[in-house]
C-alpha cells in the first residue's frame, strides 16, 4: 500500500514532472525512456501472480507514474519462453509469451468471467514470491497455463459472437506463423518433449524441412494427422495468442493516451520453435555466437541458428524466403509498437560471428565473421570483404580486422538493414528514427560503416567507457547527438553498485578524472582537485555525476534502466551465468512509495531535479546563466 505521505509527495510529483520536462527540452532531449521488461512490471498489492506484465493494473499504474516524465518505455522481447529458460532473449519471434496475459482481466464481465476469481486469488495467494520483488517463474509457468486452460474451456462455452469473430479473424490474419507455432505445441505433447532435436520421430523433427519426395509425402500426411488429433490443443494455443495480442493492443492505446511510446525489443536469437519451423532457412552446421570480449575471454556459444545468406536474398538482390519472413516480422513489430524497435546485437544483422556446431566460438576452432572471412575455407563463399580489405596482422576476432570497404560493399553489408528493417518501418509509416540499434561491445568496421551510411542511432553506454582512450565514443564529450545514451542496460550492474566498486581504486580515479574534465572543464586548480577527491571517495556523489553525465551529453535520446531510476541495488542479468536470479528482478508492488523513500532516505533513486540541475551546470557558465530561472525552479524541487 502507498502511505498518505507518499500520496502527498505524488501531488508534488506533478510539478516535478512539469519542470523536469522543461529542463529536458532545454538540454535537447527528444526521448527519455524507462527500460523495464514485461516481467519486471509491478503488480497491484495483493494481486501478484508471480510474473509482471505491462497489461496488468500494476503495469498501467507504472505508466501513469511515468507519464509526463518519460515519453517512452523500452520493453524487453515479448516472445514465448520455455519452462526451463526464463530468458526473454531466447523467446519466439512471432508468438507472444502467454505469461504476459493479465489473468485478472479474464475474471471481468468484459471477458465473460471466463476465469473464476477463485482461481485467480488462489494463484496470487500461493505465489511463493508474493512478498518479494522477484518473479516466481517455474511456479507461474505452470499455474498460468492451468488458468488459461480453464479460461479457454469457458470461452468456448460462453460462445460470444463478437469475440468469436475476432478470434477467427486473428487466426486467419496470422496463419503464416501461428499455424506452425501451434503445431509445434501439439508435437511437444506427441513426443513428450518440448525440445525438437530430441524427438524420436524423424518426420516430426523435419516436418517443414523434407529433403526427398518421399519425405515430403510423409510430412504432408503426418501434419494432417497431428492437426486432427490435437485440434483442440492447437486451437488453445491460438486462443492464448489471441488474448495476449488483444491485451497488448489495448495497452498500446493506454500508453499513447498517456503520451508514452512503447519500444519493442527484437532479440538476435531464434527460439527452438522457430528453428524447427524455419530450419530450411538456416545455415546448416553453423551457429551464432560472440568472439572473446569483455564478458567472456573464451567467447560466447549462444547456439542460435544463422540465417542462410543465400535464403536471405536472391541473386537479383530481391528478398529470398528468409528475407520475406524477417520483413514480415519487423512489419508486425513496427505496427504493434509505434515507438519503434530496439534491435539487440545489431552486429548480428550486419557482421555476425559464427562458429561450427559442436565446436567452441574461438578462432582456433574455425569460428569467424560470416561476411568478413574471405580467407576461410568454408565461409569465403559468403564474404563481402576481400583479402585486400583485411589487416592480416590482426586475428579474425579483432574489431578492426576489416580496414576498408567500397560503397558497394557497405551496401551489401547493410542489405538486411535497408531492405528489411528500414523498409518495414517505412511501410508502417515510421522513419529510421524508430530503429534503436544496440551496437555495444564489439563494433567492427563494417558495422560502423553501415551505421554511418544509413544514419542509424546507436547506443552510448557510459559505464563501459575506456578511460585511457580520449576519443572513446562513450565519453561524455564524444557522445554524438544522434544516439541513445545510458549508464547501463539489463546486462550491467546498477550505477549505484558500479560507483561502490570504483571508490578508492585506481580505476575509479582514472574514471573520475575523465568525468571531471568532461563535465566540469571550467574548474581549475584546487576546485578541480577537491572535486576529484570527493568523487573518488564518495559513492553517492560519483553515482549522481555519472547519471548527470548522460543528460549533460549531446545525446538526443536517453534511456534509464529501472534499477537505476528506482534505486534498486541488485542486478537483473549477469551475462555468462545462469540460474533463477537472472531475469527475475521486478519493481516492488509499492514502487511509488519505494521510489520516494529511496530519494529521501538513502539517495539511491534518480533524483531528476538534482541530476538535471547538475547537467545544466555542466554545460558551462554561459549555458547555466541563460537558464538561471530554470535552475532555481529545479533547486526548489531537490
Number of helices: 25
Q: How many β-strand stretches?
A: 12
What is the first-to-last residue Cα distance? 25 Å
Q: Give me the Rg, rounded.
A: 26 Å
Coarse structural class: alpha/beta
The percent of residues in helical segments reads 40-55%
Task: Estimate the global geometry from the Cα principal axes.
Answer: globular
- Which residue ranges are poorly predicted, with pLDDT under 50 across at least 5 consecutive positions? 1-8
CATH secondary-structure class of the domain at 36-263: Alpha Beta
In CATH terms, the superfamily of the domain at 36-263 is Glycosidases
Strand content: 5-15%
Walk me through the topology.
Layout: H1 4-26, E1 31-35, H2 57-66, E2 72-74, H3 117-126, H4 137-158, H5 161-173, H6 175-191, H7 202-205, H8 213-229, H9 231-257, E3 261-266, H10 272-277, E4 282-290, E5 300-307, H11 309-312, H12 321-336, E6 341-343, H13 347-350, E7 353-356, E8 368-369, H14 407-413, H15 415-427, E9 435-437, H16 445-453, E10 458-461, E11 483-486, H17 495-502, H18 506-519, H19 525-537, H20 539-552, E12 557-561, H21 562-566, H22 591-602, H23 608-618, H24 621-626, H25 628-637
Helix pairs in contact: 1-22, 1-23, 1-25, 5-6, 6-9, 12-15, 17-20, 18-19, 19-20, 20-23, 23-25
